[in-house]
Amino acid sequence: MSSRSLSRSTGDFNDLNDFDDLHGSGEPEGTVDPVDPNGLLSAHGWDDGWAAAFDEPGRDGLVPARVVRIDRGRCDLVTAVGPARAESTTTPGACTGDWAALRDGAHPRLAALLPRRTAIVRATASRDSHSQVLAANVDTVVLAVSAGGSLDAGRLERLLALAWESGARPVVALTKIDQAADPEALLEEATALAPGADVVATSALNGEGVDALTALLSGTVVLLGTSGAGKSTLGNALLGEEALATGDIRAVDGKGRHTTVRRELLPLPQGGVLIDTPGLRGVGLFEASDGLGQVFADIEELAEECRFADCAHQAEPGCAVLAAIESGALPERRLTSYRKLLRENAWAAARTDARLRAEQASRWKSIARTQRAAYRFRDRQR
């Protein structure tokens, strides 16, 4: 791919120097990869696994690229020689973080997406049977949770289920810890809600916990959280510059404004890349059984000790879960949340199955109509 053709398609990037300021020059170190001679792709997560996934028959003339941003039907990408901009409508499922096969030319376009290793998927805001991919090929999910007020346990459990289900590793970042009335109690509460996940108290204002959080990050990192949780402010602390827009909390209702309006991928100074996302108003689960099992591992472990294998943990004799609640070892709120999220997940799965059955039935009806029309045409020709 030539620099000349890239400079015609960069959109937001005026020239390659602007791109280098944001994404690094990618100077090679050690052995030079013929596909990535400047090291620009590897700086954005390219490795031998992606090279093997890209190396398939029929991709002559195509080049690997990673999706940096999607906006208004256009897709900004990083390639081995710099930035490119393509129409995303040719591959409507593309998402920030995807690796793609790009066709060069006066009008670059995505020819194919490489199979995703991980994906952050939630139910759509309309809560229909469809899903929305928030970020692709993520290694670490940082869940930004404000410590400025009381901890919303149910919301944190939802975010954790979303993160675990993706296949990435979740890390809980308690933001604005300098505003917490009792930081130690809040940290203890969050840790109890997040079995298996690291929990770090942070303050972007005074830098507390930022180094500890940075040490836990690897590969492609995505920031998730509600509006006003301090997500973009924390992102700037990790990036070491004011690259992400931030805003204040609304005084009228205490909710945050949407300062991040689209998902965007940026290189981290210590290596790896960061994907910032718009604040989540709702966190609907979409086929997250494995994620729920991880979030509520304490309940599922207790359930193995119940007298009956199909125990519903309601009034059955010998229920280890109810016994734990009675002894105070398990909060009743946690069991209530577990049941609620299981019902929601089962409902979403049923809706998805129903939609797929309806789409399949519609497809067969269309085939049957086409066949009948063909038979009628054949009969008229006799």
UniProtKB/TrEMBL annotation:
GO aspect biological process, one term: ribosomal small subunit biogenesis
Q: Where in the cell is it found?
A: Cytoplasm
Principal location class? cytoplasm
Residues annotated for GTP binding in this entry: 175-178, 225-233
Which PROSITE patterns does the record match to this protein? ENGC_GTPASE (PS50936), G_CP (PS51721)
Q: Positions of the region Disordered?
A: 1-40
Whether Zinc counts among this entry's keywords is yes
Its EC number is 3.6.1.-
Cofactor(s) demanded? Zn(2+)
Where does the record locate the signal sequence feature? none
Which Pfam families does this entry report, sorted A to Z? RsgA_GTPase
**Which parts of the sequence belong to the EngC GTPase domain?**
136-281
GO cellular component terms?
A: cytoplasm
Cofactor detail note: Binds 1 zinc ion per subunit.
Q: Where is the composition biased (Polar residues)?
A: 1-11
Which is one GO molecular function term here? metal ion binding
- The answer, when asked if Methyltransferase is one of the entry's keywords, is no
Annotated CP-type G domain residues: 130-283
Sequence positions that bind Zn(2+) = 306, 311, 313, 319
Q: Subunit notes for this chain?
A: Monomer. Associates with 30S ribosomal subunit, binds 16S rRNA.
Family of this protein: Belongs to the TRAFAC class YlqF/YawG GTPase family. RsgA subfamily.
Physiological role: One of several proteins that assist in the late maturation steps of the functional core of the 30S ribosomal subunit. Helps release RbfA from mature subunits. May play a role in the assembly of ribosomal proteins into the subunit. Circularly permuted GTPase that catalyzes slow GTP hydrolysis, GTPase activity is stimulated by the 30S ribosomal subunit.
Protein name according to UniProt? Small ribosomal subunit biogenesis GTPase RsgA
